[in-house]
Amino acid sequence: MPLPSYAKFDESDLGAQVLLSQHRLKTSGDAVTARQAVARYMKENGASALSVTRFATAVSEIVRNAINHAGGGEFSIYVDRRRKTLTVVCWDNGPGIADVDLALSDGYTSGGGLGRGLGGAKRLAGRFEIRTAVNAGTSVLMSVNL
Amino acid sequence: MMPQSATANILTVLDTDFKGIIEEWLGTQVKEGVKRSDLFSDAESRNQNRELLKAFSKGIREGVAGEDFDLDDDKWDDLRAVLADVSRERVNRGVTPTEMATFVLALKTPLFKRLEALADSDHSMLLRDVMLVTRLVDAFAIYTNEIFINEREQIIDRQRQEMLELSTPVVELWDRVLTLPLIGTLDSARAQEVMENLLQTILERQAEVVIMDITGVGTVDTQVAQHLLRAAAAVRLMGAECIISGISPMIAQTMVQLGIDVGTVSTRSSIRTALSDALLTVGYVIKKTEAQ
Ligand SMILES: Nc1ncnc2c1ncn2[C@@H]1O[C@H](COP(=O)(O)OP(=O)(O)OP(=O)(O)O)[C@@H](O)[C@H]1O
Ligand SMILES: [Mg+2]
Known about the structure:
Largest sheet of chain B: 5 strands, mixed
Radius of gyration of chain B: 32 Å
Number of domains of chain B: 2
CATH topology of chain A: Heat Shock Protein 90
Low-confidence stretches of chain A: 1-6
Number of strands of chain A: 5
Oligomer: heterodimer
Bound molecules: adenosine-5'-triphosphate, magnesium ion
CATH architecture of chain A: 2-Layer Sandwich
Distance between the termini of chain B: 98 Å
Strand order of the largest sheet of chain B: 1-2-3-4-5
Shape of chain A: globular
Mean pLDDT of chain B: 89
Mean pLDDT of chain A: 90
Strand content of chain B: 5-15%
Number of strands of chain B: 5
Order of helices and strands of chain A: HEHHEEHHEE
Number of helices of chain B: 11
Number of domains of chain A: 1
Largest interface: A-B, 24 and 25 residues
């Protein structure tokens, strides 16, 4: 079943960006790989250690959500041509989130977590956007300045 | 001479001077700088080249119909099998994908030269033969690349698995003081294992203080935090005190942004302060000797 386009970010949302890498998300090991790739690109482009820790943690939250709540997804890392910002998009084809504000609020969880992942990621990332619809998956875009 | 098909010409060339082609192929690899004599002995290289070329010839003999072929076809089983072995070995020794592809592409030159001699100035025949060889060797190289990358991913996966399974030792630092140096990623499966091991040791050693050191944990996200807090709660239920040490300023800031509340669990920035506090709890102090 093709996904309605409103639940997925595409190149037009990103502007001119170079796709650095794309990762399949299925296992907890994939979450580690995605997070480590982001950390590596940031370090290579001179991001501070604090900025790397913060953004990598945000990435860890959203990719784990895709794996735990949507059965897996896809993760892409982009950089703008002047290497000023790194942008990541995490996409899944899962159940979607009915009430985004509720999901973002601290302490809300549907599955025995701390319920602070989504709200925390939003606070940790420079730019945070989420697109989701019930049964149309969830897509999260985040960026950080390098 | 009877006009032959392109396939027949290529096979003729391969059969007539099999050894010579291998030697020249090796020579081209040396010239291109992709014969890794630092990684492979001459004997190894020669053997691998020979086995690959044998399997390649067999594929051409059986798996090319007209001028069509498909390396996924079972007629090419041998080549795929040899390639899998050669690739695995090369990946393990640190050969790059580019080197590997160049290594295969280097086979073109020796084949072109011999086809040229065979064509004996029949240029349209030469062109036809060269085109088929090019397609064959290119397909061979592309296939090699796929296998190579696949092999590399498997190795990475295996290493990752091994890393995740690194056992976490519970160390008795002093009477009734245990420490748990956590390293790497704390996923749910590993957290469970670590916790069981820890609680068992607390019981055996009658521990009163446990230091969980996270200096070696790169990322503390909500999941890791939850595992740590659960472990701390379990330690306390067993009547021991729990100190989480090794929280760097960066991790501390990140945890605050995530809204993680460590509640009443004691935290210390370094294992050093955690240790002196732990010793104090069980009735010892660390003291400098007079002579110093
Ligand atoms: N990709 C997603 N697909 C479907 N539902 C999601 C997705 N991401 C988040 N949610 C919903 O939003 C809720 C809040 O997410 P959040 O990450 O804040 O907490 P959590 O994942 O439950 O726990 P944790 O604090 O360990 O991350 C989730 O419990 C889940 O119901
Ligand atoms: Mg979460």
